[in-house]
Amino acid sequence: MNIAAYLSKGSNIQRVTNTFFNLPNGSIRSASFTSNAAKATTYGFEAELEALITDELRLTANLGHTHPKYDSFPDFNPNTGASIDRSGEPFSLIPKWTAGAALEYTKNFGFGDTSLRGDWSYTSDQYFSESTALQFSHEPSYSLLGARLSWKATDALNLAVFGRNLTDVSY
Description:
Blueprint: E1 2-22, E2 28-52, E3 57-72, E4 74-76, E5 83-85, E6 97-108, E7 113-123, E8 126-127, E9 138-139, E10 142-154, E11 157-163
Antiparallel strand pairs: 1-2, 2-3, 3-6, 4-5, 6-7, 7-10, 8-9, 10-11
């Protein structure tokens, strides 16, 4: 079993933010800006487990938690020019939770090792943009299932068929 914890503090962080402008003719335009998010703190942990249940059956599992937080993120509203405080908004592309597990059975039938593996992974919800006001930038949490059947004749010859996202989850 491996466990790691971390704490990171940063300053002068720059972020690309997306916003929409209301034009005088009533149309809406989008634009991207690079903003100085000033200061942020990130902390979390990762844990991994690998267990040989029998000589032929192996279990692996992992769990991760990340908590990024803007300590200071002064910004402005491009439509009004008013100052806004975006401290506490979520970071983009960083899920708070990730997890996974796999079970693999390997057997030697006298002509090489044959393995059957099933795996599951989970990613909690996340944002694609620094702006939580953009509803389309939010991705809900999802889980994926996978499987693999392989035959290893030698170190140089390994044949496999596999499937990912077997439940056809859209993400």
